[in-house]
Amino acid sequence: MSNIPSERDSFGSRFGVIAATAGSAIGLGNIWRFPYVAGENGGAAFLIIYLGFVLLIGIPVMLSEFTIGRSAQRNVFGSFRKLAPGRPWYLIGIMGVVAAFMILAFYTAVAGWTLEYIFQSIINGFEGLSSGQLNDMYFSFIGSPWRPLLWFFVFMSFTALIIMSGVQKGIEKYTKILMPVLLLLLIVLVVRAVTLPGASGGISFLFKPDFSKITTSTILEALGQAFFSLSIGMGTLVTYGSYIQKKDNLGSTAVSVAFADTFIAILAGLAIFPAVFAFNIEPGSGEGLVYITLPNIFQQMPGGYFFSLMFFILLGVAALTSTISVLEVIVAFFVEELRLGRKAATLLATSSVSILGVMCVLSTSSMADVKLFGFTVFGLMNFTSANILLPLGGFFIVIFVAWYYGREKAGNELSNGGKLKTRYLPFYMFVIKYMAPLAIAFIFLQGVGLIKL
Ligand code: PFF
């Protein structure tokens, strides 16, 4: 039995909805992952395909999640159970909660590293180090257990404190402050990067497409990046959708959030590539781009101390507004399905996620040799959630709305009971009935190695 309070918490304003949802979408995926994935996949050519996927698949999946959440007014599991009583669709909800556990565990581990790098920026720890030494610094930090563990718990506590305060007084209140701060910090960094001598190489890398760089794997990477970056496929936006008021416009919210997420990814590229080119660094230098390459750049550029500190604070803020959205998936589930109070639910969720989280943190040190299916625990959580659970969740979510919930009910929710014009409805239905499931099935099968191209 569920314990649904008669007055369910909700977002109080339209700006609050956008700040919270864009806060979830904008995170390590935009600032840490996007630049290096784009860097490895040809820059502008990748960006164009990515934009196509955001528009054609990302927005429709996001709209479907909003529709489910706002119709049902429940957590992700409860939403499917309410909209499809007695049917097995609630399994999508269970999968979402499981994915939330996995993502929160490894994502918080990486988010914790930003705190170490904020600390190093404050004490001027990168000064005078060669690129080899910065490389060693990164690997010796993640290779020792204690500091990453400490930062993991600090980050998890920040996340828990915000979630305990509730939807409007926690999530909404903090994202409304943190998101504009993030935008401001990023703009300052972009201005610094594009005014460096030699920056133009980075700008053309990001905006001048070289279509010879496009391969099948570029296309699949772009779709995967769109899913992860938009926070779709695991019910985060079903949960947030359930807090959107009935008078708000779901269509324009989804478009604004997708736009904001993409805009921030482009700005992150504009903050990073011009600097990478100005200092003659390889743009495809992989996951270390942010933690190894950037400190190297910062300590060579005028004002580097200040910009390094700003950059890592930015990364931490972006990660925090995403971790809270993932934790909320679990907390809403515990509150409504296990009849727990919000504080108790948060404590239970964070302590159980932390068991898995500690294993993720230790995956680069004391538990580096513990392998499951050939992965470390960190690798396994990362791979299974992003490459299996998100695409699978996204696939079933659109199938659910298109083939089970149906055009009439979905249209009714999207138009706020006929009050709003929804001229996009036929196109949306076409996309979620055929295009999105096919495309997602394609990356999923390729991702798990069932088809090879
Ligand atoms: N969208 C976040 C990012 O780009 O960093 C990551 C994320 C958050 C993925 C929430 C999934 C999710 F449910």
From TrEMBL:
It is found in: Membrane. Keywords: Membrane, Symport, Transmembrane, Transmembrane helix, Transport. One of its GO terms (molecular function) is symporter activity. It holds the Pfam family SNF. CDD domains: SLC6sbd_Tyt1-Like (cd10336). The keyword Ion transport does not apply. Its main location: membrane. Belongs to the sodium:neurotransmitter symporter (SNF) (TC 2.A.22) family. This is Transporter. It comes from Mariniphaga sediminis. The lineage of its organism: Bacteria, Pseudomonadati, Bacteroidota, Bacteroidia, Marinilabiliales.
